[in-house]
């Protein structure tokens, strides 16, 4: 049989799931396609003030909870785990080994690689760096198959010593939109409209927003906007993930990160070189073509599918957009809608699962 793990935590006597759009969508796609849910529940505790011995005991307790959640799996079963796990423990590789000894095949679907994103930050405690390295490396090396974001992330994993023969590429995250056919409007996106920027707008994450060029115009959506509107910047509020596709108004959706509009740099900007930003999926699922940094891993996907344009710097935007004719914009928009239909139907998640099963000889 085929299974996936759904993680939850007990917070103030209330059971809460991770509640992250990308994870929820993966679970929904798997559920629709014959995978059964296994719920793993732990109590939420702060680990900040734990001493070394208490911390180790807590990690061991989590290991026991995980093993108990997965105790009924047997030889021939397949299990998909979204990674990194929310209820994390440095002993999770022992959970994996226990399952494999019973003949269970385990596949990881990567959401983030924390060692590639955070270990470059100097003020992260050494203890956290060691923990991240142990948890990620040991688990990734143990499992039977890995679903990586894209070829750039896969190449980085291979460089770090992981077996390329057990890695497949997701290509892009799906983005399910309930009631899309009923609620969407063709009139939301027009060639002459502002550029859309959606996501976390706080300065530490998206500092470039606060030094945008005077042209073109921008519509901002998300949490944490820390400035006033200007002649070319409008802040239009924060919305739930399932609501956002229906309120976006603009011409293109911008995929950018880091402190500078000149190029994507810093921890968050540099991470675009290997990861699949979920906002790319949001834009395309909503039917809006994208503008993406030329150094981003997903830039090749955008160019191959002709659903957006690639730029080196945001200072190029005004000139490039002035050269985009209406017929070309409509072509990009039509292609964005074609990719969007796939994203809304879970095409890429299912395709990656089928590829990894085929690769591992499970079909």
Structural account:
It contains 15 helices and 13 strands. It is an alpha/beta fold and 363 residues long. Helix 6 (151-159) links the parallel strand 6 and strand 7 (167-169). Helix 3 packs parallel to helix 5 (126-142) and helix 11 crosses helix 14 (326-344). The protein starts with a strand and ends with a helix. The model is unreliable at 12-18 (pLDDT under 50).
Provide mean pLDDT, rounded: 89
- Taking pLDDT < 50 over at least 5 consecutive residues as the criterion, the unreliable ranges are 12-18
The tally of beta strands, per DSSP, is 13
The CATH architecture of the largest domain can be given as 3-Layer(aba) Sandwich
- Give helix % range: 25-40%
> Roughly what fraction of the amino acids lie in strands?
15-25%
Structural class: alpha/beta
CATH superfamily of the largest domain: Glycogen Phosphorylase B
Described by strand count, sense and barrel closure, the largest sheet is: 7 strands, mixed
- Rg (CA only): 21 Å
Under the CATH scheme, which class of the largest domain?
Alpha Beta
């Amino acid at each position: 049989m085929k299974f996936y793990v759904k993680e939850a935590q007990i917070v103030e006597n209330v059971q809460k799931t991770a509640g992250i759009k990308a994870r929820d969508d993966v679970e929904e796609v798997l559920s629709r396609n014959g995978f059964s849910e296994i719920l793993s529940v732990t109590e939420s505790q702060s680990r900040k003030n734990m001493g070394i011995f208490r911390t180790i005991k807590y990690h061991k307790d989590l290991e026991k909870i995980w093993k108990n959640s997965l105790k009924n799996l047997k030889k021939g079963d397949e299990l998909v785990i979204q990674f990194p796990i929310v209820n994390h423990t440095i002993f999770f590789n022992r959970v994996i080994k226990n399952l494999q000894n019973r003949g269970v095949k385990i596949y990881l679907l990567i959401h983030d690689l924390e060692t590639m994103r955070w270990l470059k930050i100097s003020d992260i405690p050494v203890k956290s760096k060691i923990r991240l390295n142990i948890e990620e490396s040991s688990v990734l090396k143990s499992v039977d198959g890995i679903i990586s974001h894209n070829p750039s992330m896969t190449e980085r994993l291979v460089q770090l010593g992981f077996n390329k023969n057990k890695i497949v590429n997701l290509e892009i995250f799906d983005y399910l939109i309930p009631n899309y056919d009923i609620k969407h409007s063709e009139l939301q996106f027009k060639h002459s409209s502002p550029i859309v920027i959606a996501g976390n707008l706080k300065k530490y994450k998206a500092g470039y927003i606060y030094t945008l060029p005077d042209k073109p115009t921008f519509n901002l959506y998300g949490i944490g906007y820390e400035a006033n509107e200007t002649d070319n910047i409008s802040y239009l509020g924060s919305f739930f993930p399932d609501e956002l596709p229906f309120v976006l108004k603009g011409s293109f959706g911008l995929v950018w990160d880091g402190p500078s509009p000149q190029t994507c740099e810093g921890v968050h900007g540099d991470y675009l070189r290997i990861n699949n930003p979920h906002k790319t999926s949001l834009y395309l699922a909503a039917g809006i073509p994208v503008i993406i940094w030329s150094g981003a891993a997903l830039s090749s996907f955008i160019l191959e599918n002709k659903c957006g344009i690639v730029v080196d710097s945001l200072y190029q935007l005004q000139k490039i957009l002035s050269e985009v004719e209406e017929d070309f914009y409509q072509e990009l928009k039509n292609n964005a809608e074609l990719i969007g239909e796939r994203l809304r139907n879970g095409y890429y998640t299912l395709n990656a699962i089928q590829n990894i099963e085929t690769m591992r000889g499970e079909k």
